[in-house]
Structures are given as C-alpha cells and as structure tokens.
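Problem: given the chain below (69 residues), write out its structure.
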Amino acid sequence: MPDVKCAVSNCAYWNKGNKCGADLIMIEVDQHANAKFDTEFAGESFDTEHQDNAPNSKNTCCHTFKPNS
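Solution.
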C-alpha cells in the first residue's frame, strides 16, 4: 500500500509524520459524504459495488476516518 498523507490528527489511524495507518482507505464523492455504509473501518469491507465520478479532488471525502477514543 502506498503512503497516504493525512493531516487529521484526531483520527484513530493517524500516525506520526501525517501518515494514515489504516489497512484500507475508503474514498467517496461528496454526494455520499453522509452515507452509512454498514461496515467497520480500516481492514474490513466497504460498499465497493457502486462507482462514481468526481470532477476534482474537492468533490471527494474520506470514509476511513474514525475519531481517537
């Protein structure tokens, strides 16, 4: 898996050096920003059966985020 940079330091998967430590990264379009995929994060499965198009990076969001406890 490539290095994934992330500046969201309150995420449970945030690692030193602004790197994401999740086993799996789920990126979605903003249209699905509030979608409740019936899954757990980082390492488990996601709903990957649908496909979307984003005109640019501003129209995407990360569903892997999980707040630090």
